[in-house]
Design goal:
Elements: H1 2-9, H2 13-22, H3 33-42, H4 48-60, H5 69-73, H6 77-81, H7 87-101, H8 115-122, H9 130-139, H10 152-162, H11 169-176, H12 183-197
Length: about 200
């Protein structure tokens, strides 16, 4: 799979430079679907470093194991908020945990759905927008052809790499459509390029 992805992605000469600098793609998927979704909510609209810090404090609330939905609903929303989350995110996490406890959300249903179907179902839930659903597709389900157009860091990286000033969504998609069916891997390389190389 990785070799097939490189054949396609290396046709993009600008992306090829990032691939050569970064090396092998190592996307870390999260085997626990609940954790994958909660991590996506925690990291909404904040920097990578802030997200990692808050995620660690969240885990530390519960000891060594990642909490279950049952663990979370035993806390108050203020206790969840205390580790640096906004009030709204604390509510989202609590409410989603309650849905699981009440058997109103079953992650197994997503396994056989298309990407669009997963996004459609997840965005029915309060606190989950398209970006969060896309992060779940990438890091929870390991889907290979996701391009999160609403990711600011990703779009800024695209602007730098391709010399774009104020690109339209159409212009961005014209570039990334050439990466199909491995847009997730292309996205990962752009993220890495922004973080480690600044495309210099």
């Amino acid at each position: 799979m990785y070799e097939d992805a490189l054949i396609i992605l290396n046709k993009d000469k600008k992306l090829k430079k990032i691939i050569s600098s970064v090396g092998e793609c190592k996307i870390r998927t999260i085997s626990n679907p609940f954790e994958a979704l909660i991590e996506a909510i925690i990291t909404q609209q904040i920097s990578d470093s802030a997200g990692k810090s808050i995620s660690l404090r969240f885990k530390n609330l519960f000891g060594t194991k990642y909490p279950t939905a049952n663990d979370i609903v035993k806390l108050s929303k203020n206790e969840i908020k205390s580790i640096g989350l906004s009030r709204m995110k604390a509510e989202y996490i609590f409410d989603i945990s309650k849905m699981i406890v009440d058997k109103k959300l079953n992650f197994k249903i997503f396994n056989d759905m298309s990407d669009d179907e997963v996004i459609f179902e997840l965005t029915k839930i309060r606190g989950i927008g398209k970006w969060t659903a896309e992060m779940y597709l990438i890091f929870g389900l390991g889907r290979l052809d996701v391009f999160p157009l609403g990711d600011l860091g990703l779009i800024n990286g695209m602007k730098k790499l391709y010399g774009l000033e104020n690109p339209t969504n159409k212009e961005i998609l014209e570039i990334t459509n050439k990466w199909i069916p491995y847009r997730t891997i292309g996205t990962w390389y752009i993220w890495k390029g922004v973080k480690n190389f600044q495309f210099v």
